[in-house]
């Protein structure tokens, strides 16, 4: 029997039961099938594809047409997972533009939820989207689309003022109707406090263990990202190979595959073993 489809209700129930949610980015059909087989519950068609697929140095050049295309590649084959698509840079600069962009990501791209980066200033946009049936995932902390304004990929919310702003933004976005919150690169203590305070599930990336789930960039967990991987990430494929080499068992070596690495990520998230202390940012 096929596994049940993951919805916002499923994710809310997971939070209430304290069962961590395993999420990964995904940009094409081959990986969508593999990630579902490996037990990933939420597939994020992230605009990180601009960096890991297209080779740009930021997510800023990614267009709405490209996001629709990649979303369609994923949703054409995804059967059980919840597929979230990123609204790209400036495509939600006004509530009207956000409605049009979400209509394309959901209508043509087949996504079940759209994600946008930013704080309380987007509350009206979130309210308009959700009132019209477009579920929203908010994204706070490090906002990659604002990298030219931030001046670098750094931990956000270390000082009390910024931490209070992130908390106020999260509450405003939840009140406006957001169904999910991604928190990127914030101190673990702040993320834990927010996950406890908010009713909606909080998915962390570089935000410690106290979130309701974890998301990573697929290419990072497979060691495919050129250059230095972020400290909060982990190459699960390399870890499998290292384990098999240490054991020198042919049977262990046979178990090394991309799918096994993704399964190891899902198992680690579900067991609360990822992130471990070396990936946690203070
Ligand atoms: O685009 C993306 O991959 C993301 C994750 C970093 C959460 O937004």
3D structure, described in words:
With 282 residues, the chain is of the alpha/beta class. The chain has a single domain, classed as Phosphoenolpyruvate-binding domains (TIM Barrel). It has 13 helices and 8 strands. The protein has helices spanning 8-17, 29-37, 49-52, 64-75, 95-107, 123-131, 147-150, 160-176, 188-197, 218-221, 236-247, 250-254, 258-270; strands at residues 21-25, 42-45, 82-86, 113-117, 136-141, 180-184, 202-205, 213-216. The protein has an 8-stranded parallel beta barrel with strand order 1-2-3-4-5-6-7-8, surrounded by 7 helices. It is globular. The model has no long low-confidence stretch (mean pLDDT 95). It binds 3-methyl-2-oxobutanoic acid (KIV).
Bound molecules: 3-methyl-2-oxobutanoic acid
Structural class: alpha/beta
CATH fold annotation: TIM Barrel
> What is the fourth-level CATH superfamily?
Phosphoenolpyruvate-binding domains
Q: How big a fraction of the residues is strand?
A: 5-15%
Series of H and E elements: HEHEHHEHEHEHHEHEEHHHH
Rg computed from alpha carbons, rounded to a whole number of angstroms? 18 Å
Helix content: 40-55%
Ends apart, CA distance between termini: 44 Å
Shape verdict = globular
Number of helices: 13
Q: Biggest sheet: strands side by side, in what order?
A: 1-2-3-4-5-6-7-8
Low-confidence stretches: none
Reading off the top of the CATH hierarchy, the class is best stated as: Alpha Beta
Number of strands: 8
Mean pLDDT: 95
CATH architectural grouping = Alpha-Beta Barrel
Number of domains: 1
The profile of the biggest β sheet is: 8 strands, parallel, barrel
């Amino acid at each position: 029997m096929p596994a049940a489809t993951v919805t916002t209700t499923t994710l809310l129930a997971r939070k209430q039961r304290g069962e961590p949610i395993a999420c990964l980015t995904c940009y094409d059909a081959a990986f969508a099938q593999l990630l579902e087989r490996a037990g990933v519950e939420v597939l994020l068609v992230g605009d990180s594809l601009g960096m890991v697929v297209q080779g740009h140095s930021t997510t800023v050049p990614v267009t709405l047409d490209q996001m629709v295309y990649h979303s369609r590649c994923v949703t054409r084959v995804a059967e059980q997972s919840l597929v979230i698509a990123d609204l790209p840079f400036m495509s939600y600069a006004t509530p009207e533009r956000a409605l049009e962009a979400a209509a394309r990501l959901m209508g043509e791209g087949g996504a079940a939820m759209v994600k946008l980066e930013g704080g309380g200033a987007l509350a009206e946009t979130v309210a308009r989207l959700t009132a019209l049936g477009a579920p929203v995932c908010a994204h706070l902390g490090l906002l990659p689309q604002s990298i030219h304004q931030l001046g670098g990929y750094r931990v956000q919310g270390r000082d009390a003022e910024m931490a209070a702003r992130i908390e106020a933004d999260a509450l405003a976005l939840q009140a406006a109707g957001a169904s999910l919150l991604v928190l990127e690169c914030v101190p673990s203590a702040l993320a834990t406090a927010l996950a406890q305070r908010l009713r909606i599930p909080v998915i962390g990336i570089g935000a410690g263990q106290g979130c309701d789930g974890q998301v990573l960039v697929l290419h990072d967990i497979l060691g495919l990202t050129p250059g230095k991987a972020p400290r909060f990430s982990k190459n699960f494929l390399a870890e499998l190979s290292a384990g098999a080499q240490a054991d020198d068992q042919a049977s262990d070596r046979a178990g090394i595959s991309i799918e096994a690495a993704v399964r190891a990520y899902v198992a680690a998230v579900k067991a609360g073993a990822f992130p471990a202390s070396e990936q946690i940012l203070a």
